[in-house]
């Protein structure tokens, strides 16, 4: 799995989150000494072009890869790595104190070790000790370094303190090496950072939790080129995965035919058919605290699949296609849970018909499936599909109903996680 699933475009809003002081949000971009330092230039550009006030704090090693003039030109501010520069302004204290968000990208194994043990030999590590705002680390290193017990312990320590440490991506590393340790795509680090910034100071309430999110729509093939499918884009599932990572969770995203970038720090499992989706969800659910079935599985599949493209007949007749019903994944994982206290969230895309309204059909579906929460979308006229916005009603097994007003899909995702966290906490 590389940095992205496929394609481009995140489908999220780039609106600036307000600083607690009412000014432009103040972001500290820490850059440590890894080859991926050059990618931080793209991250810096995204922050500055979206109106954030960015102070770049590189380590001395980072300046061996990208020089101070580059950081100064892109940020519009002087750049230093030393605590001794401009001592009268006490930068080693004030930069961290005044920040609304600190993002370290790339975060090397050395930087993570210093941060975890409270060392402060330079301006960046001093800044980390004085910051009282959210801190995001985007690691980048060779696979062996990431998997070393010392690094694992340092990451665990940082996460226990409320920091967000993004899982590195898998892909091409320095030289010919390939594996886990690649810096996530800067665009995705930016999106996750905006999400963290929008929530402000507070403990990541999904820290230490493993969540599984399915996204997209399955395909049931008739022949090598044709399939039965649906209009699900995967945007809401992607938003759920990204916001869960921003709230500190370990996230597994099971993506069914999704053509969107993979959120930073998320493990992605790609599937195509409903059978593949079921296998992946059931397997991942074993270790999950929360499972969110945002994908749209096909209800039916052809009983047989042609090995060759089905041709038109000379007499103009159409082939007869026999369908079989697919397994009900949501009902299966709801009624056969792998652990006590596991929270299962389903989705219902309803239009209403002569048997009932959208709400009535959704209430019946919640009871039939046996999940804890059901997110109901009224998709009459094709609403929601492919849109950057959504609105929903979250139904609970205890009879509660929570309307979520129209907003970004990230906002809807946070409303879903708010309800899930309450269930996890026994509320």
TrEMBL record:
Signal peptide boundaries: none
Binding residues for CTP: 299, 309, 327-330, 347, 365, 369
Region (Phosphopantothenoylcysteine decarboxylase): 1-210
Start and end residues of each stretch annotated as Phosphopantothenate--cysteine ligase: 211-427
Catalytic activity: (R)-4'-phosphopantothenate + L-cysteine + CTP = N-[(R)-4-phosphopantothenoyl]-L-cysteine + CMP + diphosphate + H(+); N-[(R)-4-phosphopantothenoyl]-L-cysteine + H(+) = (R)-4'-phosphopantetheine + CO2
Domain DNA/pantothenate metabolism flavoprotein C-terminal, residue spans: 206-421
GO CC, any one term: phosphopantothenoylcysteine decarboxylase complex
Chain segments carrying region Disordered: 1-23
Domain of life: Bacteria
GO MF entry, a single one: metal ion binding
InterPro entries: CoaB-like_sf (IPR035929), CoaBC (IPR005252), DNA/pantothenate-metab_flavo_C (IPR007085), Flavin_trans-like (IPR036551), Flavoprotein (IPR003382)
Cofactor: FMN; Mg(2+)
BP terms from Gene Ontology: coenzyme A biosynthetic process; pantothenate catabolic process
Entry annotated with the keyword Metal-binding: yes
CC cofactor note: Binds 1 FMN per subunit.
Compositionally biased intervals (Polar residues): 1-13
Family named by the database record: In the C-terminal section; belongs to the PPC synthetase family.
Name used for this protein in its record: Coenzyme A biosynthesis bifunctional protein CoaBC
Organism lineage string: Bacteria, Bacillati, Actinomycetota, Actinomycetes, Propionibacteriales
The encoding gene: coaBC
């Amino acid at each position: 799995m590389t940095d992205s699933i496929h394609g481009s475009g995140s489908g999220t809003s780039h609106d600036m989150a307000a600083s607690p002081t009412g000014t432009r949000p103040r972001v500290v971009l820490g850059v440590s000494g890894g080859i991926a330092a050059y990618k931080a230039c793209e991250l810096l550009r995204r922050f500055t072009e979206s109106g954030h006030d960015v102070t770049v704090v590189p380590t001395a090693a980072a300046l061996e890869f990208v020089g101070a003039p580059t950081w100064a030109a892109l940020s519009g501010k002087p750049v230093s790595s030393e605590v001794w520069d401009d001592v009268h302004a006490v930068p080693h204290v004030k930069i961290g104190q005044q920040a609304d968000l600190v993002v370290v990208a790339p975060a090397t194994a050395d930087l993570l070790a210093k941060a975890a043990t409270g060392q402060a030999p330079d301006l960046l590590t001093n800044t980390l000790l004085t910051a009282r705002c959210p801190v995001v680390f985007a690691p980048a290193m060779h696979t062996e370094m990431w998997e070393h017990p010392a690094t694992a312990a340092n990451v665990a320590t940082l996460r226990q303190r409320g920091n967000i440490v993004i899982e590195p991506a898998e892909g091409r590393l320095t030289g010919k090496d390939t594996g886990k340790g690649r810096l996530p795509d800067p665009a995705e680090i930016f999106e996750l950072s905006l999400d963290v910034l929008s929530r402000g100071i507070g403990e990541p309430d999904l820290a230490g939790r493993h969540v599984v999110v399915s996204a997209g729509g399955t395909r049931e093939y008739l022949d090598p080129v044709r399939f039965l499918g649906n209009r699900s884009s995967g945007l809401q599932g992607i938003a759920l995965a990204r916001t869960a990572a921003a709230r500190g969770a370990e996230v597994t995203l099971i993506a069914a035919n999704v053509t969107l970038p993979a959120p930073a720090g998320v493990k992605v499992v790609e599937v195509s058919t409903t059978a593949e989706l079921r296998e992946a969800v059931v397997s991942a659910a074993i270790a999950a605290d929360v499972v969110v079935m945002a994908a749209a599985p096909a209800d039916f599949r052809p009983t047989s699949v042609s090995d060759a493209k089905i041709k038109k007949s000379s007499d103009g007749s159409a082939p007869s296609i026999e369908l079989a019903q697919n397994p009900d994944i949501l009902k299966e994982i709801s009624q056969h849970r792998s652990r006590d206290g596991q929270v299962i969230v389903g989705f219902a895309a309803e239009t209403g018909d002569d048997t009932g309204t959208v709400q009535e059909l959704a209430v019946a579906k919640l009871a039939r499936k046996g999940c804890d929460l059901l997110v109901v979308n009224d998709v009459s006229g094709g609403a929601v599909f492919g849109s950057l916005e959504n609105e929903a009603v979250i139904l609970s097994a205890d009879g509660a109903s929570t309307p979520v007003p129209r907003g970004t899909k990230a906002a809807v995702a946070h409303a879903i996680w708010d309800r899930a966290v309450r269930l996890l906490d026994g509320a």
